[in-house]
UniProtKB/TrEMBL annotation:
Pfam families: ABC_tran (PF00005), BCA_ABC_TP_C (PF12399). The keyword ATP-binding applies. Residues 4-252 form the ABC transporter domain. GO terms for biological process: D-alanine transmembrane transport; L-alanine transport; L-isoleucine import across plasma membrane; L-valine import across plasma membrane. This is Branched-chain amino acid transport system ATP-binding protein. Keywords: ATP-binding, Nucleotide-binding, Transport. GO terms for cellular component: plasma membrane. The keyword ATP-binding applies. It comes from Brevibacillus fulvus. GO terms for molecular function: ATP binding; ATP hydrolysis activity; L-isoleucine transmembrane transporter activity; L-phenylalanine transmembrane transporter activity; L-valine transmembrane transporter activity.
Length: 258
């Protein structure tokens, strides 16, 4: 049984079919990519898996159990977390505080406890602080722990977002364009870092990425969307030479000419 199964997912926005009957299976412990031209439906797919959109049709199974219709926080509790194409950090808060938010989401005290400043809450706060700092160390940005998230360079913000996602102790992490806006050196570092997430933390990783060098070098399996439909899946070598994929990226005339 696959760890995550999306079966026949369809999502429409008015007359626009953003995902049409998309079936994608993800095996545990793998790095998979979802690729496709702009507007192909990749982020919509992520939004359905993580509970930000409810599919119009289809089913989503995690370890064989349906997670369709759950809220994003409930899905995070079950072990699926994500980062966003447009980074979503609390920009005024420090890097450390941003990660603490992630840690708190799985600790018990809750908002009421925080408001009434109970002793247990203070202990929990300290625990969250220590854990958050360790996560910053893990992603290699502990030196900016006390800087406002919004003031950080792009590459560091992306790492910070991953640290916050890791704070929920996930089994699966969905990375929406993790190397967007990065220079070549940062992209190589991000590639190595994603490999570490798999090998050291035993995570299953699904990424959306336009940087083909990163996709081909990192993914074990690739799913290709075009106009909301899945047009291909396979290993990087299979995808690289797939005629339909080449056409989707270059346009029909390009492959007809070659
Ligand atoms: N909330 C929404 N309301 C209306 N249309 C939407 C919404 N979200 C996505 N769409 C549309 O659905 C289609 C798929 O968008 P989506 O963002 O999933 O594509 P994508 O493959 O992630 O694109 P990109 O690579 O450019 O980020 C697009 O035509 C987009 O405009």
């Amino acid at each position: 049984m696959a760890l995550l199964e999306a079966n026949g997912l369809t999502k429409k926005f008015g007359g626009l079919v953003a995902n049409e009957n998309v079936t994608i299976k993800i095996e545990k412990g793998t790095i998979a990519a979802v690729i496709g031209p702009n507007g192909a439906g990749k982020t919509t797919f992520f939004n359905m898996i993580t509970g930000f959109y409810e599919p119009d049709e289809g089913e989503i199974l995690l370890n064989g159990k349906s997670i369709k219709g759950l809220r994003p926080d409930q899905i995070a509790e079950r072990g699926i977390t994500r980062t966003f194409q447009n980074i979503r950090l609390f920009k005024e808060m420090t890097a450390l505080e941003n990660v603490m938010v992630g840690v708190h989401s799985r600790l018990k005290a809750g908002l009421l406890g925080i408001l009434f400043n109970l002793k247990r809450v203070q202990e929990e706060e300290e625990k969250a602080r220590v854990e958050a700092y360790k996560l910053l160390e893990y992603v290699g940005i502990e030196q900016i722990a006390n800087e406002a998230a919004g003031s950080l360079p792009y590459g560091l913000q992306r790492r910070l977002e991953i640290a916050r996602a890791l704070a929920t102790n996930p089994e699966i992490i969905l990375l929406d364009e993790p190397a967007a806006g990065m220079n070549p050196r940062e992209t190589v570092e991000m590639t190595e870092f994603i490999k570490r997430l798999k090998s050291e933390l035993n995570l299953t990783i699904i990424l959306i990425e336009h940087d083909m060098k990163l996709v081909m070098g990192l993914s074990e399996y690739i799913h290709v969307l075009d106009y909301g439909r899945k047009i291909a899946e396979g290993t990087p070598d299979e995808i690289r030479t797939n005629k339909q994929v080449i056409e989707a990226y270059l346009g029909k005339s390009a492959s007809e000419v070659s």
